[in-house]
Amino acid sequence: MTDLEPYFLPLDGAGGERFFATFSTTGPWFADAQHVGPPTALLVRALERCDARPGTLLSRVTVEVLGPVPAGEVAVTAAVERPGRAIALLAAEMTAGGRAVLRARAWRLAEGDTAAVAVGEEPAMPGREHGVERNERPPGWLPGFMDTLDWLFVHNWFGDVGPGSAWARQKVQLVAGETPSPLQRLAVVADSGNGVASPLDIRHWLFVNTEITLHLHRAPAGEWMGVDAHTVVGPTGLGTVSGLLFDEHGHVGRSAQGLVVRPR
Questions:
Q1: pTM attached to this predicted model
Q2: Does the domain made of 8-111+124-263 have the CATH classification 2.40.160.210?
Q3: Per-residue confidence at 135, pLDDT binned at 50, 70, 90?
Q4: pLDDT, tens digit, for every residue of 99-121?
Q5: DSSP annotation of 44
Q6: What 3-state class would DSSP assign to 219?
Q7: Radius of gyration of the chain (CA)
Q8: 205: which residues sit within 8 A by CB, 6+ positions away?
């Protein structure tokens, strides 16, 4: 395999709005469409840079998937919808070919000191030393995005039906020439929850998410991110994915995805 490119190449310089989504963003469902993980992280990057304020955290990010996200040229914009020093609501949008393909909203909250009363975190996920390295793709899973991460599976694998948990680390930059932030790294991995907890055989079924929401109770750190996910498929073509999100220091938040489930 040739060397993988960064997910996005800036077309207007580091501060610009236009990017080229490379082959690294595509699959595993369709060869010409992006996995939603990288574009979600690009929206997070825009939100982090929007009227940036030290001592704050994007505590909740929701990304709505308005349709297939094509590879190639995309544009990203972000703005403050509800300003505030302690509580602010931000919005971001990705467009491609003259149409919106993703829309995001995020609550940005000021951090404080609650270390003395912190409570309720889930137990840490078993560490990377308990994971099994498996970087091959299951039958029917297309190349591209799947090959851009180092995968360590703690429970189950992409081809195994049922709940799963895995550690993952990007092998490529989100934007060429930049080191991705921990939150950007977490966004890339979190959208793989429905893959880590595959409910059905991808060769015969589509189970793609219509959105993803991240709720964080602290800022993530480091390069390795973990997801422990569980998928439910209902009787009428709908499904849900619930995920616990981790870095190597422990529990950082939760993710949720709604699924549309259809025969291929």
A1: 0.96
A2: yes
A3: confident
A4: 999 999 999 999 999 999 999 99
A5: H
A6: coil
A7: 17
A8: 199, 261, 262, 263, 264
